[in-house]
């Protein structure tokens, strides 16, 4: 058991978390920015105006990117199971 193996596993796990979270967060962030610019330009200060578009974009991102994200997570899990022999033995 070498520490480099654990560092590689931790690095891959953090990358996987960042990848899957950014799948949902980045589209919502972009839409929130666009809506806030629109609100600032028109002086509309309605809180629900920014909530609904972000919710719809987040749901659409999960709907369209969920299959890809689950596939990546399955590949990562299979890779971790294949690495058990490196960690234990």
TrEMBL record:
Organism: Catenovulum maritimum
Function according to Swiss-Prot or TrEMBL: Role in flagellar biosynthesis.
Keywords per UniProt: Bacterial flagellum, Cell membrane, Cell projection, Cilium, Flagellum, Membrane, Transmembrane, Transmembrane helix
Name of this chain's protein: Flagellar biosynthetic protein FliQ
Similarity section: Belongs to the FliQ/MopD/SpaQ family.
GO CC list: bacterial-type flagellum basal body; plasma membrane
Keyword Transmembrane: yes
Pfam (any one): Bac_export_3
PANTHER family: FLAGELLAR BIOSYNTHETIC PROTEIN FLIQ
Tagged with keyword Hydrolase: no
Localization annotation: Cell membrane; Bacterial flagellum basal body
Main location: membrane
Membrane topology type: Multi-pass membrane protein
Entry-linked InterPro entries: Bac_export_3, FliQ
Residues spanning the membrane: 12-39, 51-70
Single GO BP term: protein secretion
